[in-house]
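Quick one, C-alpha cells below. Sequence please?
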C-alpha cells in the first residue's frame, strides 16, 4: 500500500474514532415522595430540562453521549415514571399526571432528576416546553391519530389462500369479512414485497403503532396460528410440502421409532368439583382457516386473551388436579415409569410428560424437573412444567417467561402465574377471582403444600382479604398442617399490629425445630430488626449455624441475611458489616438486599463503636460504600462521624449519594465538611440552609474567611450573645452590638470606643487634650481586659 493511501485511510478512520460516543448509564432510585434518575458525565456539561407532551425532556449541549436506560426500572416501579427513552442528545421521561420534575447538579458532571409527587411549584424552570425530537423540531414522531387528510392505509394482500381461492383474512371481494371486520387491525400486518403498504414502514400510523413487547407478542401469536393452519392445509391436501431434503434422514430414523406401542389401560382422573363459572375475557378477533374448514363451517378457535391483549395459556396445560389420583388411594409411580421406554430403548414423549405431570401432582418438583431434563424428548409446554416444578420446591420460578405474565388471565394459569412471582407487586392488578377459584379446586395435599406460601405473599402486599381466603381454603383441605399454619398465624398477628404476640408465635415455631423453624427464625429476626428492638446474640449464632446446614438450598440466602441483621442488632455491627460487604449480588434484587444490610450495619457501627474500630472497618471500604445504594440515614450518620474525626473529603464522598441534601441535618454536615477543606463559598451556602447555632458559627467562619467581616457578624441573630458572636462583632467593629453583649469588658470597650469617636476637635485646648488622654486610657484598659479573658 502506498504512503498516500495510508494517509488517506487515517484521515478517514481517525475522525470517526474520535467521535465515538461515550455511554452514560442512567441509575435510578425510589423514595417515599419521588423517583430519582442520576447521570454521571465525565465532566461538567451544559444541560436543560423542560416539558414535552409526554412528560419531560432532558438535553445536553454536547452530542457525543449515548444513554443506557436498561437498568432504570430494575429499582423503581412505573408509577411516577412510565418510560425513559434515549432520543438524540438527551432523554424523554414519560410521566403520569400529578407529578412534576426537579433537577440539579449534585457535583461536577453528576446530574440528578427527581420526579416528585404533586403539581410543580409556581415559576418552576422545568415547565418550559422543549422539543423532544432529534432534530429539535418539537414534533411528536409517532402521531396520536391519523390526520383526516391522510389517505387510508392500503388493504393488505391475502395472507393465506386455499385451493378454492378464498382468503383467510378477507380479500378485496369481502370474503371472510365476518371474521375480521372493518376496524383497523391491532396486530402486525405482513405484506408482500410488492405491496404498496411498504410506505408505512418508515412512518407508522397510530392505529398500527404498538409497544415493542406487545407487538412482538402479537406477532408470535399470529405466527403460531399461521403455522398451525398451514399444517392443516397440508393435511387436507391443499398444499404440498417439499420434504425431499429430509426424507432419507426420516427413513433412517424411522427404524428406531416405536411402531406399535403397547396398549395402555385407561386411567380416569379423580372427579373434582368444578369451580364456579368464570367471567369470559374478550377473545381475539383474528380467525385463520383453510378453504376446507370454511366449506365445513368450522374455524380455528380464537386464542383467549386478557384485557391487555396477552395470549392466555389454556387450562389443559396447568390442570394439575387431573394429573393423578388422590395419594391416599396409593401411588402409581411404577405404572408410569414402566411406560417410559418403548422398543429400541426409545423414550416415549407422551409417557415422559405423563410421569412429569404425576410427579407435579404429588408436589415432587425436583423429580419432575429431573424427568423433563434427563429425557431429551420434545414435550409440549415444557417450560410451563419446569416452572411448576420449581414452584413446588421453591415457591417461585423464573423459568417460564410466558407464565410470569399470565396473572390477569381468567383461567387456571392466573394462579400459577401468581405462584411464580416473588415478590408480588402492589401496583399490579391480579385476577383474584381466577386465583382463588383455581386454588379452591386443587386437591387437598397441593393446597396444604402451596397455601401458606401464597397466603404470606398476599400479606406482604397488604391484601389481607386474599391471604385470609387462601388460609381458610387450606384449612378446609384437612390433614396435618404442622407448623406451617403456626407460622402463618404469626404473620396475621403481625399484620394486625399484635407485634408481641407475633414474636412469641415465631419463637414457638423456632423452638419446635420443625420444617418451618428456619423460616420462623428469619421472620423473628426481621421483625425485631424492623421494630428497632435488640436481638439476642444467640439468635445470630443460630442463624449462622442454620446457614451452613441449609447450604445450597433456597433457605440459605434468607438465613445468611437474617444472621447479618441479628449481628447488627446484637452489638456486633463490625462483624455484620464485613459479612454484608462479602455478599454476592447476582442481580438487582440481590444488590438491593445487600445494600440494605450494609446500611443497617453501618448505622449501628457509626452509632456504637469506638473511633478505632469505626475507622478500621470504614476506611478501606470507603469508595465501595460511597457507590453502594446506602440509605440516607446510614450515609448521614457515617458522614457525621467522619467529619467529627477530621475526614472531611471522605465525608463529602459519602454524601454525594445522599437524597435530601437541602433539608434536615444534611446541610450542616455538608457545611462542616466544605469548611474543613477550605471551600468557603460552598460552606456558607449549605450553612445558610440550617437554622441552628452551629450553622451560624460555620457561616460566620466562612464569611470571615471570604473577607466579609460585617456579614460574618450578622450571621448570628441580634439577640444571641456568645463567644463566637462577640468575636466576629469585634472583628467587624460592630460597637452598637458589643454594647449590648453579656460581656462587661466588651461592653465597656465598645462604650469607650464610641465615646472616643465623638471627640472631633481640630485644635483641642489643654482641657480637651486632657479629656482625650483620659478616654484613650479608658479604651486601653478596656481592651487589655478583653485580651486577658481566657
Amino acid at each position: 500500500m502506498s504512503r498516500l493511501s495510508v494517509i488517506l485511510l487515517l484521515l478517514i478512520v481517525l475522525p470517526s474514532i474520535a467521535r465515538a460516543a461515550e455511554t452514560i448509564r442512567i441509575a435510578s432510585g425510589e423514595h417515599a415522595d419521588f423517583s430519582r434518575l442520576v447521570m454521571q458525565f465525565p465532566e461538567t456539561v451544559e444541560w436543560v430540562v423542560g416539558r414535552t407532551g409526554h412528560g419531560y425532556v432532558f438535553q445536553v449541549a454536547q452530542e457525543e453521549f449515548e444513554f443506557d436506560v436498561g437498568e432504570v426500572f430494575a429499582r423503581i416501579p412505573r408509577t411516577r415514571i412510565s418510560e425513559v427513552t434515549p432520543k438524540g442528545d438527551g432523554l424523554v421521561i414519560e410521566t403520569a399526571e400529578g407529578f412534576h420534575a426537579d433537577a440539579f447538579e449534585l457535583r461536577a458532571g453528576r446530574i440528578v432528576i427527581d420526579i416528585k409527587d404533586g403539581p410543580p411549584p409556581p415559576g418552576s424552570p422545568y415547565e418550559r416546553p422543549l422539543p423532544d425530537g432529534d432534530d429539535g423540531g418539537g414534533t411528536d414522531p409517532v402521531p396520536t391519530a391519523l390526520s383526516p387528510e391522510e389517505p387510508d392505509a392500503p388493504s393488505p394482500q391475502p395472507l393465506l389462500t386455499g385451493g378454492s381461492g378464498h382468503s383467510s383474512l378477507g380479500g378485496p371481494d369481502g370474503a371472510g369479512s365476518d371474521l375480521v371486520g372493518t376496524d383497523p387491525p391491532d396486530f402486525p400486518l405482513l405484506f408482500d414485497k410488492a405491496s404498496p403498504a411498504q410506505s408505512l414502514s418508515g412512518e407508522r400510523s397510530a392505529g398500527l403503532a404498538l409497544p415493542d413487547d406487545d407487538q412482538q407478542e402479537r406477532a408470535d401469536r399470529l405466527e403460531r396460528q399461521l403455522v398451525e393452519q398451514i399444517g392443516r392445509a397440508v393435511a387436507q391436501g391443499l398444499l404440498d410440502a417439499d420434504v425431499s431434503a429430509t426424507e432419507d434422514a426420516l427413513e433412517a430414523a424411522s427404524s428406531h421409532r416405536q411402531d406399535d406401542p403397547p396398549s395402555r389401560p385407561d386411567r380416569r382422573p379423580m372427579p373434582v368439583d368444578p369451580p364456579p363459572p368464570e367471567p369470559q375475557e374478550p377473545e381475539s378477533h383474528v380467525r385463520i382457516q383453510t378453504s376446507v374448514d370454511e366449506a365445513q363451517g368450522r374455524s380455528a378457535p380464537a386464542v383467549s386473551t386478557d384485557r391487555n391483549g396477552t395470549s392466555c395459556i389454556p387450562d389443559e396445560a396447568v390442570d394439575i388436579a387431573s394429573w393423578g389420583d388422590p395419594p391416599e388411594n396409593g401411588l402409581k409411580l411404577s405404572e408410569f415409569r414402566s411406560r417410559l421406554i418403548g422398543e429400541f430403548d426409545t423414550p416415549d414423549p407422551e409417557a415422559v410428560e405423563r410421569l412429569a405431570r404425576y410427579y407435579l401432582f404429588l408436589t415432587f418438583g425436583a423429580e419432575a424437573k429431573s424427568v423433563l431434563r434427563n429425557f431429551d424428548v420434545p414435550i409440549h409446554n415444557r417450560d410451563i412444567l419446569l416452572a411448576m416444578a420449581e414452584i413446588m420446591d421453591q415457591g417461585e420460578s423464573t423459568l417460564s417467561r410466558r407464565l410470569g405474565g399470565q396473572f390477569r388471565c381468567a383461567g387456571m394459569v392466573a394462579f400459577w402465574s401468581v405462584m411464580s412471582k416473588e415478590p408480588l407487586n402492589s401496583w399490579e392488578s391480579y385476577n383474584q377471582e381466577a386465583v382463588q377459584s383455581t386454588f379452591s379446586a386443587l386437591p387437598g395435599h397441593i393446597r396444604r403444600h402451596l397455601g401458606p406460601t401464597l397466603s404470606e405473599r398476599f400479606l406482604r402486599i397488604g391484601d389481607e382479604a386474599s391471604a385470609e381466603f387462601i388460609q381458610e381454603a387450606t384449612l378446609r383441605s384437612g390433614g396435618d398442617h404442622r407448623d406451617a399454619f403456626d407460622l402463618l398465624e404469626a404473620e396475621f398477628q403481625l399484620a394486625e399490629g399484635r407485634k408481641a404476640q407475633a414474636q412469641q408465635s415465631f419463637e414457638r415455631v423456632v423452638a419446635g425445630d420443625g420444617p418451618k423453624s428456619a423460616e420462623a427464625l428469619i421472620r423473628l429476626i426481621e421483625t425485631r430488626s424492623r421494630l428497632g428492638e435488640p436481638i439476642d446474640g444467640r439468635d445470630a449464632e443460630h442463624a449462622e449455624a442454620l446457614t451452613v446446614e441449609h447450604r445450597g438450598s433456597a433457605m440459605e440466602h434468607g438465613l445468611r441475611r437474617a444472621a447479618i441483621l441479628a449481628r447488627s442488632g446484637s452489638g456486633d455491627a463490625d462483624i455484620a458489616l464485613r459479612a454484608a460487604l462479602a455478599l454476592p449480588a447476582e442481580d438487582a434484587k440481590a444488590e438491593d438486599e445487600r445494600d440494605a444490610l450494609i446500611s443497617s450495619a453501618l448505622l449501628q457501627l457509626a452509632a456504637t463503636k469506638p473511633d478505632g474500630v469505626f475507622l478500621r472497618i470504614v476506611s478501606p471500604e470507603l469508595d465501595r460504600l460511597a457507590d453502594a445504594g446506602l440509605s440516607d440515614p446510614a450515609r448521614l450518620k457515617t458522614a457525621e462521624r467522619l467529619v467529627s474525626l477530621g475526614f472531611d473529603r471522605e465525608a463529602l464522598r459519602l454524601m454525594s449519594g445522599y437524597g435530601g441534601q437541602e433539608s434536615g441535618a444534611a446541610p450542616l454536615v455538608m457545611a462542616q465538611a466544605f469548611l474543613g477543606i477550605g471551600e468557603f463559598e460552598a460552606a456558607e451556602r449549605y450553612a445558610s440552609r440550617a437554622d441552628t447555632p452551629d450553622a451560624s458559627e460555620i457561616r460566620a467562619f466562612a464569611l470571615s474567611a471570604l473577607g466579609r467581616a460585617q456579614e460574618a457578624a450578622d450571621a448570628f441573630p441580634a439577640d444571641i450573645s456568645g463567644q463566637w458572636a462577640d468575636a466576629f462583632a469585634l472583628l467587624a467593629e460592630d460597637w452598637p452590638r458589643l454594647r449590648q453583649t453579656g460581656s462587661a469588658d466588651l461592653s465597656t470597650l465598645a462604650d469607650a470606643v464610641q465615646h472616643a469617636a465623638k471627640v472631633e476637635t481640630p485644635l483641642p485646648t489643654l482641657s480637651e487634650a486632657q479629656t482625650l488622654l483620659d478616654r484613650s486610657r479608658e479604651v486601653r484598659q478596656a481592651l487589655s481586659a478583653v485580651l486577658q479573658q481566657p
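The beta strands are 22-30, 34-40, 47-51, 55-60, 65-68, 81-87, 90-95, 99-107, 110-117. Residues 15-127 form a domain with the Immunoglobulin-like fold (CATH 2.60.40.3500).
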